[in-house]
Amino acid sequence: MQRRKFIQSVGMATGFGLVNESQALVPQKPLVFLFQGDSITDGNRGRNLDPNHIMGHGYAYSVASRIGADFPDIGFTFYNRGISGNKITDLQKRWESDTLALKPDVLSVLIGINDVNAIINNAPEATSLEKFEGIYRTLLEDCRRANSEILFVLGIPFVYAVGKRAQNWEQWRDLTQARQEVVRKLAGEFDAVVVDYPAVLDKAMHQTPAEYWIWDGIHPTVFAHELMAREWLKQVRKRLRFLKKY
User: Fold this and answer.
1) For the chain, what is the largest distance between any 2 Cα atoms, rounded to a whole number of angstroms?
2) What is the distance in angstroms between the CA of the first residue and the CA of the last residue of the chain?
3) CA 238 – CA 217 distance, rounded (Å)
4) Are 125 and 89 in contact, with CB atoms under 8 Å apart?
5) pLDDT at residue 24, rounded to an integer
6) Residue 14: exposed, middle, or buried by beta-carbon count in 10 A (0-12, 13-18, 19+)?
7) How far is CA 123 from the centre of its chain?
8) Per-residue pLDDT tens for 15-43?
9) Taking each helix axis from N to C terminus, what angle separates 129-146 and 88-98, rounded to the nearest 10 degrees?
10) What is the DSSP track for the chain?
11) Is 76 in contact with 30 (CB distance < 8 Å)?
12) What is the DSSP string of 97-108?
């Protein structure tokens, strides 16, 4: 207990950084950042090692580009393993190869909207809310066993009454909200950073129509991806304090 108080007194937020009295918090090691999810994370990323396309064109790209540009000497590694159309069961199938094998120190996950879509479309692979929660929890437990110091960054899924999503809107809204609550619950269980994307988007829509930000009710425009990246950095810097400049 005394050692824990000492660590907290000098400002060590996680196992990834340390305080220098004359400098900002700096990382102890070159961290591995992994972004997981569906098409919103995928961002039409490349499927090879071409560094020009490997992160896609969404919020994951924006986050990686800033951190990589501002800390070029640290040697951070960034992976994007989002796949368009993925549901929680799809993540489960590829978790070993696309997550555990990459040994992330920071794992960012945004998933859930395709699970809602499967229910609305009566797809045979649709999963219940309880199964969604159970699989999600198991995936996080697997990562925690592999790396006890891993930092989870859990994104809140979102949907808006734009385009086809305006049809059956109440169902879209209610099913998505239920999964939002699951993500918040899991974030509490795993001491994760919560990135509340819908809160940021809701605020932006007070002055600008939803279509400007979310063109089809699910997929962000380039402008919304920028808001998502800013919010990701704003929340994660609370735990990785060397990112405080953001």
Assistant:
1) 59
2) 32
3) 30
4) yes
5) 53
6) middle
7) 25
8) 565 444 334 567 778 999 999 999 999 99
9) 10
10) -HHHHHHHHTT--STTEEEETTEEEEESS--EEEEEESHHHHTT--SSS-TTTTT-SSHHHHHHHHHHHH-TTT--EEEE---TT--HHHHHHHHHHHTGGG--SEEEEE--HHHHHHHHTT-TT---HHHHHHHHHHHHHHHHHH-TT-EEEEEPP---S-GGGGTTHHHHHHHHHHHHHHHHHHHHHTTPEEE-HHHHHHHHTTTS-HHHHBTTSSSB-HHHHHHHHHHHHHHHTTTSGGGTT-
11) yes
12) HHTGGG--SEEE
User: What pLDDT, on the 0 to 100 scale, is given for residue 3?
Assistant: 34
Task: Return the pLDDT at 29.
Answer: 84
Residue 171 predicted with pLDDT over 60: yes
Query: Poorest-confidence range of 4-18, 19-33, 80-94, 153-167?
Result: 4-18
The amino acid occupying position 99 is: T
- The amino acid present at 13, given as its one-letter code, is A
Place of tokens 């925690």: 144
Percent of the chain at pLDDT > 90 equals: 87
Q: How far apart are CA 108 and CA 154, in angstroms?
A: 6
Token digits of residue 177? 């909200």
Mean pLDDT of 203-228: 98
Q: Name the β-bridge partners of 155.
A: 195
